[in-house]
Amino acid sequence: MANRLMFEKPLGMRDTLPFFYNQKRKARQALSQTIESWGYQFLDTPMLEYLDTVGEASAIDETQLFKLLDQQGHTLVLRPDLTAPIARVAASQLKEQGYPVRLSYDGPVFRAQQIEGGKPAQFEQVGVEYIGENSIYADAEVIALQVESLKASGLEQFQLTIGHIGYVRGLLTEIFGDDEETSEMFLRYLFRKNYVGFRKALQEVDLSETDKKRLTQLLSLRGEENVLSKAEDITTNGACHQAIGELKQLRDLLEVYGVSQYVSFDLNLISHMHYYTGILFEGYAPHLGSLLCNGGRYDQLLPSFQSNASATGFAIRLDRLVEALSQEEDGEEHVLVLYNDDSFQKGLQKAQSARANGQQVALQHKGHLEENSQMEARYTWVYDVTTGGGE
């Protein structure tokens, strides 16, 4: 009796077929070349990490961790992201180099899915970490590099939305004071982008009409050119004004970088409840229903590895980038050379000549093709060098 799971895969796991694999390879190469040209160095970390260190430090919820035990009884996790492992490396093996350090990565991460909702449990991220510099110049560099990397991959239409966690928390503190529970509730609505729930909860809390109006205005602080000035007008909180000041400096620097047309501001953007500590951003592309990339400043991660260093960075979902890119043929010529027992040498010479010209060539014995094979349809050019055959 055949195993009923013979052709099945674990929940959330996917195969990568040749066309998609090739598209990922090209996108990965374009991203990597751009990132390296900005002075970032690639490194790799183990896929398995300790739960008590990297697992606890990660921004990913524990319910999404793949856990297992090693032979010594330690609980391990498949890495759910690459930021925490790189922070571990920077705080231990690279700390003697001195900060700042510019690091980059490319590799798979693993996040367990509870139900079959179409989300992958394994996917590849390409990203950077700028560690050891707490300045608006570092934030601007990372965002500008994010833009240039996406452009280098061939993506033409995309938008980065930029926010600042300090502004949102400052405004909520100004309105709710020590009532952290209520502040966290509204923060959670923003994180989940549940604006209907936000407005409903706003009607139920005991606030002045002025404060209710300010929180309603918070939801509209996005997109427009004068959004930063509007954000400044609805608060007297010092943390809020500091955040606006940083965003204005960032806006000016991004204009110098020449990437302003790719960015907009959203003052109620929350990418994570407690992970980011300053400027944060998300990237989207038309017709892509999911987040393409995200990043921001996370100054509390390195201290968890006993290193008093700040950091900022970004991560690009490679599978979603490929999905966002044009689905047209890549323009490369794929060649099939057919031969038989009498024409192998001729076929080999033809294949070698085409490969020398940069073409991708498959050399195939014609007699070993299955009947009704669709193999020839997958190639740009087919050369049949068997007796009596033609191009």
Indicate the mean pLDDT.
90
Our measurement of the CA-to-CA distance between the termini, rounded to an integer number of angstroms, reads: 47 Å
Give the CATH H-level superfamily of the largest domain. Bira Bifunctional Protein, Domain 2
- If helices are DSSP runs of H or I spanning 4 or more residues, what is the number of helices? 12
How large is the radius of gyration?
Answer: 26 Å
Widest beta sheet: strand line-up: 1-5-6-11-10-9-7-8
| Overall 3D shape | elongated
What is the share of helical residues?
Answer: 25-40%
Main beta-sheet annotation: 8 strands, mixed
Number of domains: 2
Uncertain spans = none
According to CATH, what is the class of the largest domain? Alpha Beta
Task: Find the CATH topology of the largest domain.
Answer: BirA Bifunctional Protein, domain 2
Written account of the structure:
This protein is α/β, with parallel strands linked by helices. The protein folds into 2 domains: 18-325, BirA Bifunctional Protein, domain 2, CATH 3.30.930.10; 334-384, Rossmann fold (3-Layer(aba) Sandwich). Helices cover 37% and strands 19% of the residues. The protein is built from 12 helices and 14 strands. The protein has an 8-stranded mixed beta sheet with strand order 1-5-6-11-10-9-7-8, sandwiched between helices. Helix 1 packs antiparallel against helix 4 (136-152). It starts with 17 loop residues before the first helix and ends in a 7-residue tail after the last strand. The mean pLDDT is 90.
